[in-house]
């Protein structure tokens, strides 16, 4: 576990919240993450409780089941990410159904991991999610990128008086192009020979300029403009 801690994406301990309606599973996940060096700041067993506690605890990463009483996981994700775009959400679900995966991503989830994953895979997925990287159970990443492309092929018509898109710097455009190609922040940093934190800053600046809320919307924006083929 020491290797995992050494690779933590920030100087401080990553704050994690675990949401699942099965107490034994929820406690086991929270225990495993705490043992790996994460700061488990809260847990919750239903949707409304998850929203309340997340807003109070301020986690960096939300490990979220989709099947929750009171309020579905996708609704929890959409509300919390809408209010705090910096929040990273890793869905941990028993369902590998494509519709569930795509709905979770569209609601703002950064990644999607099946509950069949090992403890080490979960620990690594939380680390990567905290760093802003998209994390998917093998086989699902291609599905999500394919959906991005489908959405981009049929974009909503622009209004005649729609304002001109904000101007991005050359570096922001370069980072956006690599994000659209599916590269992780770490890979982008290595490609451009800049720090991981600098990549994150460029992405946050771009989100602000374009008035977008998360990486999902950012990738769609980039693909609509053909940046993934540039």
TrEMBL record:
Look up the domain of life of the source.
Bacteria
Q: Show where the HTH luxR-type domain sits.
A: 161-226
Q: Does the keyword Phosphoprotein apply?
A: yes
Can the keyword DNA-binding be found in this entry's annotation?
yes
Q: Which GO terms describe its molecular function?
A: DNA binding
Please provide the record's keywords in A-Z order. Answer: DNA-binding, Phosphoprotein
Any one Pfam family match given in the protein's UniProt record, by short name: GerE
Q: Which positions, given as ranges, span the membrane?
A: none
Using the record's annotations, give every residue carrying the modification 4-aspartylphosphate: 65
Which ranges of the sequence are coiled-coil?
Answer: none
Q: Where is the Response regulatory domain?
A: 15-130
Q: What is this protein called?
A: DNA-binding response regulator
Species source reads Streptomyces hiroshimensis
